[in-house]
TrEMBL record:
<dbReference type="InterPro" id="IPR021109">
    <property type="entry name" value="Peptidase_aspartic_dom_sf"/>
</dbReference>
<comment type="similarity">
    <text>Belongs to the beta type-B retroviral polymerase family. HERV class-II K(HML-2) pol subfamily.</text>
</comment>
<dbReference type="InterPro" id="IPR050951">
    <property type="entry name" value="Retrovirus_Pol_polyprotein"/>
</dbReference>
<dbReference type="InterPro" id="IPR001969">
    <property type="entry name" value="Aspartic_peptidase_AS"/>
</dbReference>
<dbReference type="InterPro" id="IPR043502">
    <property type="entry name" value="DNA/RNA_pol_sf"/>
</dbReference>
<protein>
    <recommendedName>
        <fullName>ribonuclease H</fullName>
        <ecNumber>3.1.26.4</ecNumber>
    </recommendedName>
</protein>
<dbReference type="GO" id="GO:0006508">
    <property type="term" value="P:proteolysis"/>
</dbReference>
<dbReference type="Pfam" id="PF00078">
    <property type="entry name" value="RVT_1"/>
</dbReference>
<feature type="domain" description="Reverse transcriptase">
    <location>
        <begin position="231"/>
        <end position="280"/>
    </location>
</feature>
<dbReference type="InterPro" id="IPR043128">
    <property type="entry name" value="Rev_trsase/Diguanyl_cyclase"/>
</dbReference>
<dbReference type="InterPro" id="IPR000477">
    <property type="entry name" value="RT_dom"/>
</dbReference>
<dbReference type="GO" id="GO:0004190">
    <property type="term" value="F:aspartic-type endopeptidase activity"/>
</dbReference>
<dbReference type="GO" id="GO:0004523">
    <property type="term" value="F:RNA-DNA hybrid ribonuclease activity"/>
</dbReference>
């Protein structure tokens, strides 16, 4: 319950009520157990109701001392909105502020308790809706449906036994578990060319016809606004509508083919992004600043091998450098035989 002597802070929930035809300022206190008016306010009423004796003890908030009660009365209370209700008021000695308890204020329509807080509505993008409606595309490792990889092996070639790859002791159990999983049919091809299932034990070297990346490369062909290199996919459009249409088609195709995505690596609705070492944006294609910085801070080459390495790095930016071949000709001369270094 509020203290009777309040300040005039305009942020307090003050209202005007009518008691017996007289306007009385009152503070709405949802924590108050009773309605209170001061002795001074009671004496100003044009019609003063008879006070009844009460044994009730009223304590101000944070106080251990009971307020001096002169008596109580019950009368009709009217709010500004013309709503009326009957309320019991306790008259307190002094000239403090009048209080309206929660029940009376609620009956007068002066207060409303919000019991549930809802987060503000958010306009979801098409990408958000697709992610929310296709949780299966981000669950586990996908398996391409209706596709059988055929390994064309020349029976005239004698298989060779490869020495096992040393695996750190602390991860051997995990490697063993992974091999057991793959042996039950959940196998993914290695990224190494001409090697199938190379593990830390002896393995057989065999010629394979197609890599997993090559198979996946053809999965999204035919969808407008979509490019994929290996297992990286980029979706683009001249407008947001074009982009969303292509993205929807990609999600549908992946779902039908049984493939999945890594949610942590997905980025949606970007105005620019890095893709295979280049920056793509509405302005076109540009060099990745990180790669340019690496070239700028490359150490001075000391021999032909280091010059070739520098040229290999610089060749990345060749499409952005006019007359690249002419500019780098002096460096390429240094890689030729019988070239004298100074």
């Amino acid at each position: 319950m509020q203290k009777l002597r309040g300040n005039s802070n305009s942020k307090q929930p003050l209202t005007q009520i009518k008691l017996y035809g007289d306007t009385v300022p009152a503070l709405i206190d949802s924590g108050a157990a009773v309605n209170i008016i001061s002795e001074k306010t009671y004496n100003k009423l044009s019609t003063q109701p008879r006070l009844l004796h009460t044994d009730l003890k009223i304590l101000a908030y944070g106080s251990k001392d009971a307020l001096p009660i002169l008596g109580k009365f019950t009368g009709c209370v009217e709010a500004k909105n013309k709503t009326k209700t009957d309320g019991t008021f306790y008259v307190i000695k002094g000239d403090g502020c009048s209080l309206l308890r929660y029940q009376t204020a609620d009956e007068l329509g002066l207060i409303k308790i919000i019991r549930t807080i809802r987060p503000p509505s958010v306009n979801l993008t098409v990408a958000d809706e697709l992610v929310n409606s296709h949780p299966e595309l981000f669950d586990g490792i996908g398996k391409l449906k209706d596709f059988q990889v055929t390994l064309h092996i020349n029976p005239d070639i004698q298989p060779t036994c490869q020495p096992h790859r040393r695996v750190p002791f602390h991860v051997r159990e995990k490697v063993e578990a992974e091999l057991q999983t793959r042996s039950r049919g959940h196998h993914r091809e290695s990224d190494r060319p001409n090697t199938l299932g190379l593990a830390h034990r002896n393995a057989t070297k065999a010629q394979r016809s197609r890599q997993a990346a090559e198979v996946f490369q053809n999965t999204l062909q035919g969808i407008a606004g979509v490019k994929n290199l290996s297992d990286d996919i980029i979706v683009y459009g001249a407008t947001q509508a074009d982009h969303d249409k292509s993205l929807t088609a990609v999600f549908q195709q992946l779902k039908e083919r049984g493939l999945t995505l890594n949610r942590k690596k997905c980025e949606f609705n970007k105005t620019q992004l890095e893709f295979f070492g280049f920056i793509f944006s509405a302005g076109g294609v540009s060099a990745d600043p990180k790669k340019v910085d690496a070239i700028y801070h490359a150490k001075k080459p000391k021999d032909a091998a280091e010059v070739r390495s520098l040229l290999g790095i610089a060749n990345y930016c060749s499409r952005f450098i006019p007359n690249f071949a002419t500019v780098t000709e002096p460096l390429r001369k240094l890689t030729r035989k019988n070239t004298t270094w100074q």
